[in-house]
Amino acid sequence: MTYVPARNTIFLSFALAWAEVLESSHIFIGVNALDYSGYPDCRPEFIEAYTQLHQQGHAHSLECWQGRRLVGGIYGVTIGGLFAGESMFHRVSDASKVALFHMIEHLRRRGFVLFDIQMLTPITAQLGGITLPRAEYLSRLAQAVTQPVAF
Fold first, then answer.
1. Which residue has the higher pLDDT, 3 or 63?
2. Where are the domains of the chain?
3. In the prediction, which pLDDT does 34 show?
4. What is the pTM of this model?
5. CA separation (Å) from 12 to 34, 49, 74, 132, 144?
6. Engineering a disulfide at 71: which of 10, 88, 90, 95 sits with its beta carbon 3.0 to 4.6 angstroms away?
7. Distance, CA of 151 to CA of 147 (rounded, Å)
8. What is the mean pLDDT of residues 116-141?
9. Which residues contact 111 (CB under 8 A, 6 or more apart)?
10. How confident is the model over 29-41, as pLDDT tens digits?
11. What is the 3-state secondary structure (H, E, C) of 40-98?
């Protein structure tokens, strides 16, 4: 018997297509390659810095694939038990949500204690995201960065 996945089956990988995830995240927000105004995180210097962080083991991505086509993903930076999510994208409906869900599950399994999502949305709230008062966030952040956690 041979397993043949459904046409819309999504497969996951970690950092298999790092550069493409960065590029796709910035294309998703509509940045013209020649005009970075309003999007300081899309400048070539930013992409280069994130690539260096990735090469040093601090920046990570999770990708969603349909066959050989990258259809969604998420990336961010880790420091100890903190994962600071930077951006996510999708090329097919809900692929970024699939990436987010699986990133959360991966972080839980690895022992991460704080996932900074930048802003609360209906989807992140549904997956357990909350807004923290600044003092509580800073306290949790101080504890998280000291945790000996590996991605």
1. 63
2. 11-144
3. 44
4. 0.78
5. 32, 25, 11, 30, 26
6. 95
7. 12
8. 90
9. 81, 147, 149
10. 444 444 445 545 5
11. HHHCHHHHHHHHHHHHCCCEEEEEEEECCEEEEEEEEEEECCEEEEEEEEECCCCHHHH
End-to-end CA gap in the chain: 36
From the list 52, 69, 57, 86, the residue with the least C-alpha distance to 13 is: 69
Q: Is residue 141 within 8 Å of residue 114, measured between CB atoms?
A: yes
Q: Token pair of 74, please? A: 């998420």
Please state which CATH class domain 11-144 belongs to. Answer: alpha beta
The residue type of 52 is Q
pLDDT at 127 (0 to 100): 85
**Paired tokens of 2:** 């041979």
Q: What contacts 116, CB < 8 A, 6 or more positions away? A: 76, 82, 83, 84, 85, 141
